[in-house]
Design brief:
It holds the Pfam family Peptidase_S26. It is a multi-pass membrane protein. It catalyses: Cleavage of hydrophobic, N-terminal signal or leader sequences from secreted and periplasmic proteins. Strand 11 and strand 12 form a beta hairpin. The protein starts with a helix and ends with a strand. It is built from four helices and 17 strands. The mean pLDDT is about 90. The chain is an alpha+beta fold and about 270 residues long.
Length: about 270
């Protein structure tokens, strides 16, 4: 189900009904009331006047819901949109059940549904956690970390990421233990900020020869490097598929009571 499409349709329908009432149906009700009052010497009582001017239920609902739906559409399309993390591919940065906020204007303003970019602003940077429409199934949103920009040479061998021929610096922090048995917790520095990743020394993982990121495309990877369906398997992310940059976790809910104590910035 495309929620953006449903929201656009709801705004269009309620807005049209409200507009038709303003320019056509409401004046028509008032004319009928004036004609009824002109036909009696005593005039109509208050109850009769209210009945004559009463809005039909579609107009009443549209007048109530249209402003709310319009504000939600504008905020969701051009400012910030919430998402829920469905898989562990971005662990340890993001856990299953995290609810995140995505900045919709960092990479430019786009129209809802058709995704045409109206205003160009910033381009994704290495290290950004980016939400995008999955190239093989655009109705599904993915979240991964940007590791390759247009023109970059990317290679992944022996659990080591190389960008433009240089190994990306990383250091061992600890064994993940009970949180992720068998995994090693490492800190990787990709871009301006450091972030944490998981590697499993017993899992050979994918080996990827050097590739050049085409213009207008990006190479992405999950922080859970041995358990992530990312660009190593299905290729590059086209610029037109970008949704926005994830910047905060505002709630965690994995089936029990929701936790708001996990509010934190994403980096």
């Amino acid at each position: 189900m495309d929620f953006s499409l449903l929201l656009v349709v709801a705004v269009a329908v309620t807005g049209l009904i409200w507009l038709l009432d303003l320019v056509w149906w409401r004046p028509s009700r008032r004319r009928r009331l004036a004609a009824a009052e002109a036909g009696t010497t005593e005039g109509l009582d208050e109850r009769a006047r209210e009945k004559a001017l009463k809005e039909p239920w579609p107009v009443d609902y549209s007048r109530s819901f249209f402003p709310v739906l319009l504000v939600v559409l504008l905020l969701r399309s051009f400012v910030v949109e919430p998402f829920q993390i469905p898989s562990g591919s971005m662990r340890p940065t993001l856990e299953v059940g995290d609810f995140i906020l995505v900045n919709k204007f960092t990479y430019g303003l786009r129209l809802p549904v058709i995704h045409t970019r109206l205003v160009e602003l910033n381009a994704p940077e290495r290290g950004d956690v980016m939400v995008f429409r999955f190239p093989d199934e655009p109705s599904v949103n993915f979240i991964k970390r940007v590791v390759g920009l247009p023109g970059d040479r990317i290679r992944y061998e022996g659990k080591q990421l190389y960008v433009n021929g240089e190994p990306v610096a990383k250091m061992l922090l600890d064994e993940a233990g009970a949180e992720a048995p068998g995994e090693l917790l490492l800190e990787e520095r990709l871009g301006a900020l450091a972030h944490r990743i998981y590697n499993n020394p017993r899992d050979p993982g994918p080996q990827m020869r050097e590739l050049v990121v085409p213009e207008g495309h990006y190479f992405t990877m999950g922080d859970n490097r041995d358990h992530s369906n990312d660009s190593r398997y299905w290729g590059f992310v086209p610029e037109e598929n970008i949704v926005g940059r994830a910047f905060a976790v505002w709630m965690h809910w994995d089936g029990g009571l929701p936790s708001f104590g996990s509010v934190r910035r994403i980096h």
